[in-house]
From TrEMBL:
The lineage of its organism: Bacteria, Pseudomonadati, Bacteroidota, Flavobacteriia, Flavobacteriales. This is 3-dehydroquinate dehydratase. Keywords: Amino-acid biosynthesis, Aromatic amino acid biosynthesis, Lyase. It comes from Dokdonia pacifica. The gene is aroQ. Pathway: Metabolic intermediate biosynthesis; chorismate biosynthesis; chorismate from D-erythrose 4-phosphate and phosphoenolpyruvate: step 3/7. Catalyzes a trans-dehydration via an enolate intermediate. InterPro entries: DHquinase_II (IPR001874), DHquinase_II_CS (IPR018509), DHquinase_II_sf (IPR036441).
Amino acid sequence: MKLRIINGPNLNLLGKREPEIYGGKSFEDYFKDLQIKYNHIELSYVQSNIEGELITHIQDADTMYDGIILNAAAYTHTSVGIGDAVGAIEIPVIEVHISNTFGREEFRHQSYISKYAKGVILGFGLQSYDLAIQSFL
């Protein structure tokens, strides 16, 4: 099984940015832990702060992976384009969020991705990614 993790804007700052919300560990360090734990799965990871690049990563994954774990971060709430890209591909997408977006500002309650996602996991910190992987097994 091949899974692609796609992270959106500012997630490159995990471990530094608002640790009270996002924790103190970088995603790169956490990703190494996932690779060890799920060594029987081919995991790859990409992060971009640029909306168009995220759309391209989603489209490209459709022919190369069995599924996507997508944390579009702030673009979740603003990007019709990312939502359309998820709706246009054949492979399943699990939408993840580190924080409970429903416990935050009201604008974060809207997702342009959820409608097309196989499922949504939020509020479990970095463990949200682990739960998403488990959903594919």
